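User: What would this chain look like folded?
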Amino acid sequence: MNDYVPRPRERYDAHWVIKRDLANIIAKYTEWGDLETAAVYKEALARYSGD
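Assistant: Here's the prediction, encoded as structure tokens.
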């Protein structure tokens, strides 16, 4: 007997994932004190977000 019940999948928002990952990268470099690299990623996040 098969008890598998298909469930609807949550919508996958790739843009949100990219923004989240860039924010995490910025936080890590800031934490490590590498503000120059963090600024590069902040610029990338701003371009990606359209700001």
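The chain has a mean pLDDT of 90. If you want, I can go into more detail on any region.
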